[in-house]
Amino acid sequence: MSMFKIEIVVANPKHEEIETPPVEALVETGSELSWLPADILTRAGITPRRKKIFQTADGTRIEREIGYAIIKADGYETTDELVFAQKGDMTLLGVRTLEGFGVMVDNIGHRLVASTTIVA
């Protein structure tokens, strides 16, 4: 298994011209949602909409706020829910965002690769 990081930019869905600066995030297919520092999301005007409980790898349960945003990376873009990460949390690009981008993860080349969407 390999791990790599990419730069992502998050835009406010109500005012798309308001964006975060590029943020380096770990591509993490084991995480359902993407996680970005709460202060960065707040500065872009992204507001928490609800709370969700997560279970960490060691079994600890934590509660975090969730908000909606437009996420961009490597020429891909999607809308998704984001976790308002707190101090000590990792900055992650989760699997739902990757699916929204319509990409697969190339762990050897350390990049995102466009994939075909399968219709049921």
Question: What attributes does this structure have?
Answer:
single chain, mainly beta, Cathepsin D, subunit A, domain 1, globular
CATH class: Mainly Beta
Task: Please give the CATH architecture.
Answer: Beta Barrel
- Give the overall shape: globular
Indicate the structural class: mainly beta
Quaternary assembly: single chain
Q: How far from one another are the termini?
A: 29 Å
Number of strands: 9
Alpha plus pi helix count: 2
SSE string, helices as H and strands as E = EEEHEEEEHEE
CATH topology: Cathepsin D, subunit A, domain 1
CATH superfamily: Acid Proteases
Which stretches are poorly predicted, pLDDT < 50 over at least 5 residues?
A: none
Structure notes:
With 120 residues, the protein is mainly beta. Helices cover 11% and strands 46% of the residues. It contains 2 helices and 9 strands, in the order E-E-E-H-E-E-E-E-H-E-E. The strands form 2 sheets. Strands 1, 2, 3, 4, 5, 6 and 7 form a 7-stranded mixed sheet that branches. Strands 8-9 form a two-stranded antiparallel sheet. Strand 4 and strand 5 form a beta hairpin. The longest helix is centred in the C-terminal third of the chain and has 7 residues, at 95-101. The N and C termini lie far apart (29 Å).
Layout of secondary structure:
Elements: E1 5-11, E2 23-27, E3 34-37, H1 38-43, E4 50-55, E5 61-73, E6 76-85, E7 92-93, H2 95-101, E8 103-106, E9 111-114
Parallel strand pairs: 2-7, 3-6
Antiparallel strand pairs: 1-2, 1-5, 4-5, 5-6, 8-9
